[in-house]
Amino acid sequence: MAEPQTSAALPLYLRVAAALRDDLTQRRIAPGARLPSERSLVHRFRVNRHTVRNALQLLRDERLVVTERRGTFAAATAPDASGPVLAPGLLRFPCGTGGPDAAAVTRLFWEPAPTGLAERLGLPPGEPSLVHRHQVPGTGGTPVQEAVSRFSRYALSEVPELARYRRPESWPARPDLRMLYHWMHRAGLRLTRRESIGVGHGPVATTCLTVHRVVSDQHGHVLEVTDIRFSPDAASWTYEFTG
Fold it and tell me: 20 to 30 A Cα–Cα from 181, which one of 113, 160, 190, 225?
């Protein structure tokens, strides 16, 4: 079977994961079917076992495969995208479209970062960058969740799928960035995601929960800064940790 063409600049484990991901999404490996053994994958891709294990871990993070005592199997069902998820390696950007927040208003903007944030994003003062705004309406039209994500100059230069949004004329009516972290992984970026949770005040409610997220790569470059505010009785967060 011919392997998909991938950039030689990508780390080996990402290239192996991309080939297996293609097998899974194209149903060459049926849902619930057992994947080839690690030894078979080592032979197929001509890599060492550590590389294969890293690739399988990424696919587990993406909920495309599960590992049991009997081996590794293709997931029987698609990952649950019923709500925001905070977990390194998972596919869904937490402010995407679809799912239970299908009525959400999602827009892209090209605007300067607030004072104090521009330097962190690698931007000279006043230089605009890509901004993703997401709002989930509640009863009577009052928003129950609002999120603002700002992307650094480095993210726009390193992630091709994100770079295409440099041209506002190409923006879709409802941008969908749910695959953002997958795009970053595919570009060879290993992500560190740091979240701070607190209680604040804002337009979502008199009192609201707040999440401040900073996503960086393995070199310490900030890729994304997101601020989310939501009513505590209108949304929930799921935390998952991989040891």
Answer: 113
Residue 108 and residue 137 in one domain: yes
pLDDT tens per residue across span 55-75: 898 888 777 899 988 899 998
Nearest one of 207, 179, 209 to 196, comparing CA atoms: 209
Q: 231 Cβ partners below 8 Å, 6+ apart? A: 138, 144, 145, 204, 205, 208, 209
Q: Round to whole Å and give the CA distance between 110 and 194.
A: 25
Q: What's the CA dihedral at 197, 198, 199, 200 to 10 degrees?
A: -90
Look at residues 74, 98, 121 and tell me which one is the last residue of a structural domain.
74
The pTM of the full predicted model, rounded to 2 decimals, is 0.62
Pairing of strands 85-86, 105-112: unpaired
**Rounded distance, CA 211 to CA 224, Å?**
13
Tens digit of pLDDT for each residue in 171-187? 877 787 877 887 887 78
More confident residue, 146 or 231: 146
